[in-house]
Design brief:
By secondary structure, the protein is an alpha+beta fold. The chain is built from 15 helices and twelve strands. The strands form four sheets. Strands 6, 7, 8, 9, 10 and 12 form a six-stranded antiparallel β-sheet that branches. A two-stranded parallel ribbon has the order 1-4. Bound molecules: flavin-adenine dinucleotide. Flavin-adenine dinucleotide (FAD) binds next to helix 1, strand 1, strand 10 and helix 13.
Length: 394
């Protein structure tokens, strides 16, 4: 396995608990330092189909995309997870938590387990290294994130064409993600989003609000403000509230108005500083998430023609709106379940993973497009003509 971010670590911990496997896990970072707060979906710890499909945007999509037997299989796998991992998943789904606390917790869990079976190496692995290391009977899993190490090597001839041939990418919008901790329990539904934006004609601050996983009385607010491509280009990748007020006062005003209204209503204070990043919100998937094409192309001495290769996490699928890790965890659990079935021929394993990751992609694609559409309508909610322009009723 290459890449020990959240998804690589979870997958390593899942494979570690299977009989008869040894895992070699390569990671280039020496320390887990990413403090950004992330949210995991409650469906990760669902114990019934109803709770798995409880999200009101996602519920029907889940029914449309997955067969009942698939949903049951996923729930059965979840129920059989080692208790140490289940406890961590329950903890993380309580609210926003720092990315590095997820990474450290799984990393420590792997190191602390009595029957270890995971050999960890700190190294930057190249695609050539990964190919050279492969031996008969090995499975190679790329968990190296959005700039995947192997995504462009998964089909014969792919090295000779444009870099992104194996990636389907849809840019939904450019956004500022403005995050802060707030020292009071605070919740926000759709009318709260509307009324707190009443004077924000152009830039709307759309918050995702949830408690933090470690303290129910601290709220984590992560607001998204839509910006233009030109504004995106003119901003550094990361900055604070003061920089925004000096350089983009109208965007800052929308943020400050919203925060003032939260304070007026709940009499709390912001804990620490505002953190702002500007990011493109992209939906993407690897057209091939496995080395299946190498297998079907017939005999070859390329290492991927004889050893199954899988992409997991952001290397396979990327989505905005706080969904990616949960999606990566879902695919990781499914992949661990496939690898555990030792009698399964490699061809079936590759086909089934392709189909499953495609279904997860469809699900996140539909959910993300719906969120984006709702956001677009919300931006024009007080202008009936502009609103009608964005509606496609038939
Ligand atoms: C501002 C922001 C907020 C976000 N909020 C959320 C959220 O609330 N919820 C959510 O689900 N997601 C969120 N995300 C997305 C989330 O952080 C990613 O989906 C997640 O980190 C992907 O996990 P991963 O393990 O697939 O990849 P990564 O986290 O990218 O990990 C990849 C690992 O591979 C290692 N690596 C890479 N190349 C090599 C190599 N050649 N050799 C060795 N090691 C290598 C890297 O060092 C890294 O440790 C957010 C992202 C951003 C930018």
């Amino acid at each position: 396995m290459v890449g020990a971010g959240p998804v690589g670590l979870l997958l390593a911990a899942l494979l570690q608990s299977l009989e008869g496997f040894s895992v070699r896990l390569y990671e280039k970072r020496h320390e887990y330092t990413r403090t950004r707060m992330v949210q995991l979906a409650p469906y990760l710890v669902a114990d019934s189909v109803d709770s798995y499909r409880a999200d009101h945007i996602d519920g029907d999509n889940v029914d449309a995309v997955f067969d009942p037997a698939e949903l049951d299989e996923g729930l059965a796998f979840r129920r059989a997870l080692p208790p140490d991992l289940t406890a961590l998943l329950h903890d993380w789904t309580l609210g926003f938590c720092p990315l590095n606390s997820i990474e450290r917790a799984v990393s420590d869990l792997i190191d602390a387990r009595a029957s270890n079976g995971v050999e960890r190496t700190a190294a930057v692995v190249t695609a050539e290294d990964a190919m050279a290391m492969l031996e008969p009977g090995d499975v190679l899993i790329d968990c190296t994130g959005s700039k995947s190490l192997l995504r462009d090597h998964l089909a014969p001839g792919s090295g000779e064409v444009d870099g992104d041939a194996n990636t389907l990418k849809i840019r939904l919008e450019y956004a500022l993600v403005i995050t802060f901790l707030y020292g009071q329990l605070y919740d926000c539904n759709e009318s709260c989003k509307y009324f707190k934006n009443a004077e924000n004609e152009h830039y709307k601050f759309i918050p995702a609000v949830h408690r933090t996983h470690y303290d129910g009385s601290v709220s984590h607010v992560s607001g998204i403000v839509n910006i233009s491509a030109e504004e995106y280009e003119a901003m550094p990748s990361r900055f604070d509230g003061a920089w925004l007020r000096d350089n983009f006062p109208s965007v800052a005003q929308s943020m400050d108005r919203f925060i003032d209204k939260i304070k007026e209503e709940t009499h709390g204070e912001i804990l620490g500083e505002l953190e702002i990043v500007r990011i493109p919100l992209d939906l993407y998937r690897a057209r091939n998430a496995t080395s299946r094409q190498w297998l079907t192309a017939g005999p070859s001495d390329h290492p991927f023609a004889s050893s199954p290769v899988f992409l997991a996490g952001d290397s396979a699928i990327g989505s905005p709106y706080f969904q990616s890790i949960s999606l990566g965890f879902e695919c990781a659990m499914y992949l661990a379940g496939l690898i555990a079935q030792r009698e399964l021929p490699p061809r079936d394993m590759l086909d089934r993973y392709e189909l499953y990751s495609y279904k997860q992609w469809l699900r996140v694609y539909m959910r993300s497009k719906m969120i984006k559409h709702n956001k677009d309508l919300f931006e024009s909610i007080d202008e009936p003509l502009a609103l009608l322009d964005k509606l496609h009723i038939y």
